[in-house]
Write a structure and sequence with these properties.
single chain; about 290 residues; mainly beta; eight-stranded antiparallel β-barrel; 1 helix; about 55% strand
């Protein structure tokens, strides 16, 4: 008789304790930063670049020559109000990206890297090819055949800059990993550290500022080629929604059709590697 009474009491106690445990778990709030799927983000920042050497070929009706191992540098603005001035915001070297979390760890995004590329001038380079302009053109002073000849690339001979700019318009897929626990951070809704890595590909639409063989200056946007890149970075997220992100991006650019003059029969081509450092600010949210 006693055993028959004790058994249901024990079963009832176990059931009640289990219910308390479930309720306690349900009452623990889930952090906003625990799940990312469905979130959008947008960022804006600045960059610095380094470029590999490049063979640049110039073609026209009366010339076809290559400058071998041309070097170039970027054109930094430094800390400047233009980065946030709506009327001058495209002048500095800038980056903008808009993305969406398709899962807790993976994002898809669209971005524009507004880089700047300035070919180094007034330096001796090796020239291959020929120039045979009509005598009536000022640039005819450079007429001749060149076979890996040393040549001073002066500003009178050539000014070649993608300064407004070397525009890389890309689509990217990236992975997003919370590494806060490594640094002993528990409340990620206040501060979270994420490691990101991604792959991208897209089009190059430079606005190339060129004066070639003393012809008239040309400076217009033109779809010139493509690029591919890989990125790794750190995302520092504050109070669930605001972040600072640093990225190191490396890639390859191939531009077989760069406009150099108003004559569509004249063009340049080049390909090179680049490394880009980016620092951005942004926001992350659900709609």
């Amino acid at each position: 008789m006693t055993k028959n009474i004790i058994k249901p009491i024990l079963l009832g106690a176990i059931f009640l304790l289990s219910g308390f445990k479930i309720n306690a778990q349900e009452s623990t709030p889930i952090k906003y930063t625990t799940n990312n799927k469905g979130k959008f983000f947008i960022s804006w920042g600045g960059n610095r670049e380094r470029y590999s050497k490049s063979d640049i070929t110039f073609k026209g009706e009366d010339y076809n020559f290559t400058i071998n191992n041309a070097t170039a540098h970027d054109k930094p603005k430094g800390w400047h109000i233009d980065y946030i001035n709506p009327t001058r915001i495209t002048i500095p070297q800038t980056n903008v990206k808009v993305g969406y979390f398709i899962s807790d760890k993976y994002t898809v995004s669209l971005g524009i890297d507004h880089m700047k590329y300035v070919m180094d001038r007034n330096e001796s380079r090796r020239l291959d090819g020929y120039i045979d302009l009509p005598e009536s053109e000022p640039g005819s002073i450079y007429n001749g055949n060149y076979n890996n000849d040393a040549f001073l690339v002066s500003e009178d001979f050539l000014k070649f800059e993608h300064t407004n700019g070397l525009n890389y318009v890309y689509a990217e897929i990236a992975r997003f990993d919370d590494i806060s626990s490594i640094f002993g951070i528990n409340n990620t809704d206040k501060f979270q550290i994420n490691f990101t890595e991604g792959l991208a590909a897209g089009a190059l639409v430079p606005k190339t500022n060129t004066t070639l063989l003393q012809k008239d200056r040309y400076d217009e946007f033109h779809l010139s080629g493509y690029g591919i890149s890989a990125t790794a970075g750190l995302n520092l997220l504050f109070f669930k929604h605001f972040f600072i992100q640093t990225d190191l991006r490396g890639g390859y650019i191939n531009m077989p059709d760069i406009r150099t003059t108003s004559n569509t029969a004249e063009s340049a081509s080049q390909h090179f590697m680049f490394i880009q450092n980016v620092i951005s600010i942004g926001g992350m949210f659900r709609i």
